[in-house]
Amino acid sequence: MTEHPHETSLLPGRATELRTLRESVLAAVSGRPALIHLAGESGIGKTSLIQALTGMCFGFPVLVSTACGSPLERDFSFGVVRRLFGDLLATTDEPVREALLDQAGPAARLVLDEASFEAPRTSTYTTHHALFRLVAKLAERSPLLLAVDDAHAADAPSMRFLAYAARRLADRPISLLISTTDGERLYAEEPLLALTGQARELRPAPMSDEDVAEVVHRSVGRTSADVVGACAELTRGNPFLLTELMRVLGQSRTACDQLSAATVRRLGSPAVATRLRARLRARPDSEALAQAVAVLGDGAEFDVAADLAGLTPDEAARALDTLAAMSVVPNSLPLAFTHSFVRNAVLDSVPVGARLTAHGRAAQLLRATQAPSEQIAAHLLRSGSSVTPWAGAELRRAATLAAGRGAPDIAATYLRHALKQPSSARERSAMLCELGSAELSYAPHDGIDHLRAALAIATDARQAAQATLRLVPALCMLAAHEEASRLADAAIARLGDLDPDLAWRLEAAAMMSEFLRLPTVPTALHRMERMERPALGDLALRRAQQGMLATMAGWRGEQREQVVRCAREAVLGADQNFFRPPSYYALFALARTDASAAIDEVFAAADRVAERSGWPRAMAIMAMSHGLKALHCGDLTEAARRFASALEAFEGYGIDARGDHCAVTCAVWYTDVLVSLGRLEQARALLDHYPWVAEDVPETLEYTFLLYARGRLRLAEGDAQGAVDDLEECGRRATAWQMVNPAILPWRSRAAAAHIALGRRERARELAEEDLVPARAWGTARVVGVAQHTLAMAVGGPESKALLTEAVASLAASPYRLGHAAALLDLAALLHGEGAVGEARAAAQRAVALASECGAEPLVRRGEELLASMCGGRRRGRRAETPYGLTPQEHQVALAAARGATNRQIAQDLCVTVRNVEFHLSGAYRKLGVKRQGLGAVLLANVGPQVAVETRELAGAGSH
Predict the structure, then answer these.
(1) Under a CB-based contact definition with an 8 Å cutoff, are residues 369 and 362 in contact?
(2) In terms of pTM, does the model score above 0.85?
(3) What is the pLDDT of residue 30?
């Protein structure tokens, strides 16, 4: 069936109901009279449907008459009937009107004639029959459509007549449509029930999410799915509420791209509140209960709401039944509003003073019922600055719960309000300490200020120690190491022998502040020796100790099994305090063990802790850890993604990442990855972000790592002497920190490569041999293979072949594909020089394939050049410029594919592996936005003659 044009003018989602009504009218014309009862909650769109139906063109004449019940007119007899017949008779001329009234009888004239308006009207059989004769006579002239909106408020005589007429429609072409609203009192209950009992009920459904989206986009413009979802959630598809919400949004003049779901969820409407008050005007108990539920919020308990509304249980029960019948609240417990928008409107309609008092009273009632602290605290926050003796304790309990579930910002809000309540100096110091700790997670500068304030008013040694313990790591993030050490030592001295475990924590905090600076490393190591005692009663303390032991064991290159065990103990079962130093360093040490099962297990546990904490810094540390894991497997693309994500999190945390030792370490690892990817400009830009790199590098731990990164970059840029200077200085500092394990900082292998570039093979060999000793002590195939590879390149000559072969074997047994590819490539070059072309080609092809998998473009290029030299120079030269941002390799391979050559044919012609061809093709597809079949249209449409000839040669050569 074709949709009627008028349907498109309705609110979306009403086409089905309108079509049903239209079909009923058409059926009545065919002799099947229609009696339809439109029922539903307030605002569901009943009036809109009646207006749409009565304004519709049916293709033939239909007499239409509408009326609406009104509480102000329901005491006027036959008010609705007079409106209906007034419309019908207005379409006739005077002689016809008089004739119709004469045929109906005096009783009809008595009801309808304006001259007899003041005469008494009675609802009798004679009157009803006379009026029905008039209806029947009108229906003989044309089909009738009679519609009565809000029939629940219509006068009783009119409803009695309509009930009388409904039973006598017979085969007449008459459609009678009435509407009622759920929960409204029925003024003429008996005749209305008799009428609806005969009718077909039609209940308009709420608008679908798609329909809501259409209205939102049409009203406020294209906005996010979250905003649309909030509109649907707030109104539950009620058209009136949605229209009012759109009006409120329009009045706010907020740009659609600046709207947020949270903003929408807070909105209310005076018009909605006014409409609800009008419906509840005769039901003061229901209005009081609605306001109480609005104050308490969704999930309110019945007895608490009744107390807050000032109602007895019986009164509240009756009021609740009324609200449920009106669909203001669902017919279930606990209490809530059916539509959040209505709840907001009711709450907004309560005067501000009364609202503050109500929230304070709600908090008191909830406390009496032992409700959750966060529920009580929410009302305390909304009760203004009222002073309540028990409020501070409830707010602190709520803050503890909020912090435990990873909501430090909410915890801080509770604590700031608690500080407004009366408290002792001890309580105030404790609250400031808790507030500062919460703020460190998202506003570190504010957190440090509050921790300093807590320390300043601490009343005893333990309280001062607790504040110091939280303050010292935060000061280290600001590079305020001297202040951190001074405060830690002062707290330790004040604490004495009062609490050994707390003293250990302070020692750890002081150790970290000293360990980060080269001049105080000896002092830090001395502290560390004292801290290695096993007698720690606190389980969380043991975890912190195990994290420290794992870190130092990894740095010293001691037994990997100890590192794995300590890392497991440090992480498994830990809480968010794990992400304070030195505990989380265990993750970095563990990543160097190549113990894949343990790494996966521990990292998964740490991920869960970070997610629960909601701390951006914890999430950044986990991104770093996963990036390091990817780097040690040679997955450069994944490593780059993780490190970039971590740096972004550090930058957004609120502290200058250039002074944060963890953020600087992340930048170092990211630089290492960028150099391996061949993105030297990006690596240089990253290092240039740190101003001290261009000057004397500070003697701190993080900048020692930064020296390594700068040395690696300088070597890649061709500045071998600059690389030597940086890497040798890096090594001098690393020795002071007992960082001998090349798995932690491979400065010797990089420095050896720089010395080789300068022709200083003796120094290169010395460094390589030094590196091999701790590498063998650490024992992973990755670190041993890298050390063997470095020594082979430093030794040169016949001895290097055996060392390279050992290196390749070691690295093949490790997860480090990038190192394996580099060693294979150097072995291939050596074999090629010896004339073993077949072995050399196989090794080079395997190296290029591995480098391609890693994304190491410089290594891929070097391998391709070596393979080209093995093929007698058949590899085509690179063009200086290539289109569409393709690399020369991608362009060359894509052109061959566009001409029809298979991947194997291209690989044979270019002396590369099939996997290498696939690697370059995937890059070309991504940049061009096409698949293989689309390459010709993009690359061959405007190809130059020389390129076209070359491409044909490639395709032809591959077919031989």
Answers:
(1) no
(2) no
(3) 85
